[in-house]
Design goal:
Layout: H1 3-11, H2 15-37, H3 40-56, H4 67-88, E1 90-94, E2 100-104, H5 111-128, H6 133-144, H7 149-156, H8 160-180
Helix pairs in contact: 1-2, 2-3, 2-4, 3-4, 6-8, 7-8
Amino acid sequence: MEIEEAIKRAKLNDQKAFNYLLDTFWDNVFGFQLKRTQNENDAEDITIQTFSKAFDKIETYDDAYKFKTWLITISKNIHIDLLRKEKNSISQVILNNDKEAFQILDESPSPEDELITEQHLAKLLRDIKKLKPHYQEVINLRYFQELSYKEISKELKEPMNNVKVKLLRAKKLLAEIIRQE
């Protein structure tokens, strides 16, 4: 399959075309993020988010540009957004005597926050149980047991690209379930 053909088929929601594009460009996006983050887990997470966002917005892709460039741009923007979120969690305070001090915001949860978190977690677990068992399993392994994609691949005895696609689909289906409620 040629890349142009895969993009056309992906725009028609062809799952094989999505898999082909993921297989073809995964190493490019992952390598780009690995250089930026210097952390394999962060690079994997950003790469998954990149393909998720790209596949959700595939109809907006302009073939005047290279597909790889479009993916890298999405990836770069996701990374920048994550850095901004991290930066906003720390506030800078300038003291009266012109000495600078950095104060880390107290983000420890209050008892009310803990109760809300428990309620949200219980709801999330109920929503996850609405997924098919193989999607439940991959979400459990990645987010609750915190296994890497490679470890999940070994555990499920499936190729790593299948694990990535399955996780991507599971997250999309879970998001739909949550939005519907």
